[in-house]
Amino acid sequence: MTFYENVFIARQDIAANQVEALADQFAAVITENGGQVAKREYWGLRNITYRIRKNRKGHYVLFNLDAPSAAVAEMERTMRINEDVLRYLTVRVDALEEGPSAMMQSKGRDERDRGDRPRRDRGDREFERRDYDRGDREAPREAAAVEPTTGGEA
């Protein structure tokens, strides 16, 4: 059989247990048509880059599938009909990856302390920006000598 990865986004206003039921329904479609779900991950409620049908967030679910193409086509048809699914994407892969996906690995990275990163000194950057805004990249502008003038005497 062929290996696939499928990610779908469910609406933000449904509960997490409803998303699990939705994922169970799609997994049942795969198994009924002779395939199997090798891995299933719930990535949680995440921000979407742009609004989709007035939703700014969505529940993300990943499937790793070992299934024939007819089973995947039937699952996609079911997703297209379901109004709780905002978007889905199925990609054929050469091999299924073992262990947690990159999205699940990045969750732990966000929670750790980031104090070990070196900080950049921004002092030179402000100087360069000021010179660039003036149009003079060569050297900083020197103060022009201004002679005081008297207002009424000629």
State the low-pLDDT regions, or none.
none
Q: What is the average per-residue confidence, as pLDDT, rounded to a whole number? A: 80
Tell me the span between the first and last alpha carbons. Answer: 98 Å
Assembly context of the chains: single chain
Count of alpha/pi helices: 4
Strand order of the largest sheet: 2-3-1-4
Helix percent band: 25-40%
The Rg value, from CA coordinates, equals 29 Å
Task: Outline the biggest β-sheet.
Answer: 4 strands, antiparallel
Order of helices and strands: EHEEHEHH
How many β-strands, per DSSP? 4
Notes on the structure:
This protein has 154 residues and is α+β, with helices and mostly antiparallel strands. The protein is 34% helix and 32% strand. The chain has four helices and four strands, in the order βαββαβαα. It has helices at 16-32, 69-81, 102-111, 123-134, and strands at 2-11, 36-52, 55-67, 85-93. Strands 2-3-1-4 form a four-stranded antiparallel β-sheet, with helices on one face. β2 (36-52) and β3 (55-67) form a beta hairpin. α1 (16-32) runs antiparallel to α2. The mean pLDDT is 80.
